[in-house]
Amino acid sequence: MQQEPEHRARDDQAGGRVMGLGRTWAVALVGMRGVLVEVQSDAGSGIPEATIVGSVSTAMKEAKHRVKVALKHSGMRWPDKKVVVNLSPADVPKRGSVFDLALATSILCADRQIEAPLAERTVHLGELSLDGRVQPARGVLPAVHAAVRAGYPHVVVPQANAAEAALVHGAQVTGVGHLIDVVRHYGVTIDADLEEQVRRSAPAQPLEAPHAGHSGPDADLADVLAQHQARHALEVAAAGGYHLLMEGPPGTGKTMLAARLPGLLPALGDADALEVTSVHSLCGTFSPEAGLIRRPPFESPHHTASAPAIVGGGSGIPLPGSISRAHCGVLFLDEAPEFPSRVLETLRQPLEAGYVSLDRSGAHTSYPARFQLVLAANPCPCGHAGSPHSRCTCTPQMLRRYRSRLSGPVLDRVDIQIGVEPLSQAELATAATGEDTETVRARVLRARERTRSRLEGTGWTIYRQAPGRWVRERTAAAGRRLTRDLDRARDRRQITMRGYDRVLRLAWTLADLAGRDQVCTEDIATAFTLRTRERHG
């Protein structure tokens, strides 16, 4: 490395710098919210030791050991002085090893091993290994977005995260693979022999693509034979963003239908794509090569998943769960009654609010959770209740207990509830190939465009977002007689007030799918059937 400049103290004082003090920046993530953190390091007289202050976790306190060894193996030195590092603001919790790179840079600035005024305006993100390599980190996308929004567009990130960071508009990204790259970025000349020796002792680590929850081409709706009512329900759910329950024996195509719903949904806009991609960046399930996530995600957790796995959780600052990874997409719960009741009940608040709030000791976070819920259920534990061809072996108590797992409050929030019946051999032999995904998706997009035009100026884009009072007033304006039968069903307690409003929303979506300007009695009747699985008179 280059020699230290002479008369450094004189130059520091003349330039107005505080001798022995180095500054740079990092980002602390509290859920989806990024807070800019100033990393200040002082290298002064006293017994050589290092102290890190500023509401730091145990992993942060251990960072001084990683940074010290990483500096040694990168051809630099740890100051033989008393080093104090402060992370400000102190009241923001700071967890994880993503602050390593900022700590190393600020300490090198404090010891004047690098002269880097630019470092005082740069955000550094990344974990250091003991040999000086800069390891990839989670949550780089929301962290860089927070930095740019705060007026700090210069960011130094791990090379493996550079493509992800570059997705943020306005970010000026420098990707680094080793601590030597950081030092060179700030104008320090590295001896070639030393660099060769360092890099030989720190071989490049192969990068593995993160697991993505939704990859490959969408499954085609044409693969589903017959099942006309279920296909129609799926189309209505896609057109209005509605929640869906399918009940039927095993092997009737419930899972196939659910897997094809994302292919019917419109691509995500810029704001939604950034939010969805940020969630997956936090979870480590995002590969940046294809850019922002534009396809609606599809999450299908197993019925043994715990409540924290579904809604989010963990020690310290909670991480997003399945419902947040399904934001702007589909959350599919196969064998829904097999999920613990506690897990299903935790869905009630996110279904209404579109986000989930998680409180832990010392941390309050909220994550977006505006998803479409698709439930699949058998009619009974053995799956053969009501079948004319197979004998059900379940006792009345088993059947009652099984069905009670989907509570009334949860079911009342599910807009469409249909039965999916098995097909006979004759029906399978004569079933014609149904419409493919592209054909149905085109119809869904046209219906959504009509809905958007109707709701222009309201701030909503689909009827599911509109409050019940507004939908009732809109329907009444189309004709008081339209809801006469629906009013009777409500008075007979066949449907709750929440269900009443959901039927009206479904009816307007049916009108948009049919290209009609007004809702009609037939739309309300069909919507009631989709809602309750029975025809009302």
Brief account:
A five-stranded parallel β-sheet has the order 11-14-17-10-18. It is elongated. The protein contains 23 helices and 18 strands.
> What amount of the residues lies in strands?
15-25%
The number of helical elements comes to 23
The helix content is 25-40%
What is the makeup of the main sheet? 5 strands, parallel
CATH superfamily of the largest domain: P-loop containing nucleotide triphosphate hydrolases
The level-1 CATH class of the largest domain: Alpha Beta
Number of strands: 18
Question: Which features characterize this protein?
Answer:
single chain, 537 residues, alpha/beta, Ribosomal Protein S5, domain 2, Rossmann fold, four-stranded mixed β-sheet, 23 helices, elongated, disordered N terminus
Question: What would you note in describing this structure?
Answer:
The chain is built from 23 helices and 18 strands. The protein is elongated and about 85 Å long. It has 537 residues and is of the alpha/beta class. α3 (63-72) packs across α4, α19 (437-454) packs across α22 and α22 (497-514) packs across α23. The strands form 6 sheets. Strands 11-14-17-10-18 form a 5-stranded parallel β-sheet. Strands 1-2-4-3 form a 4-stranded mixed β-sheet. It has 3 domains: 8-201, Ribosomal Protein S5, domain 2; 221-445, P-loop containing nucleotide triphosphate hydrolases (Rossmann fold, 3-Layer(aba) Sandwich); 466-537. Mean pLDDT is 85; it is low at 1-17 and 207-216.
